[in-house]
Amino acid sequence: MTSADAGAGGSGAGGSGLGGAMGEFAGATGSVVDGGSRCVASASSTLPGVSLGFFNVRCTYTQAEAAAGVQFDYELTVASDLFLVHPESQDLGHCQQPGISGLIVGFSIGGDGQRYCLCDVGPCPFQQPFSTSPRAGTYDDHIVWDGRNWGGPSDTSQPKGAPFPPGTYELGLLSTGTFHDPTIDGGVGGQPPDQVPYRVVASRTFTVTP
Question: Is residue 1 part of a domain?
Fold first, then answer.
């Protein structure tokens, strides 16, 4: 196992998300049972050999537990070495950078009008497109959440909002970009072979109780 991916949501260098509505991260679905509670998990990937998944994440948390701080653990798995991968920043200011995995992972927690992400951490200088070569391995990281609404600090030190009320929410992970696929002659839609779009997602629901 490789230590936390510095570009992923839990580290602050890559935490963002593109939604928060239920189904935003939809993929192959299944049910998870935790202490008699049931939640729904899904995952999908169009980047060969790469997947995202959660571990040590429960189906139910109380508002008090959330307010004290909840840690959602996840892992990014790269089954075999890749080359010429171009991960994309997802935050508004394009501040995210690849972590030690060579990829960028963003996150979003939300549903029913509630949302928590690091979507806006402020503007950053223009960055040239990233080009990485992810190595085979499993890269662990985590997201820490205090139960509140927030879109990130922006460049104006935005305060956090109200706590999420009791309800069922979706925790989602997202990694996007393009990659080199030598099996495709001429690429996709007239794009060169190293500009094939990819999307790696994972999500699961959880419930906040009083």
Answer: no
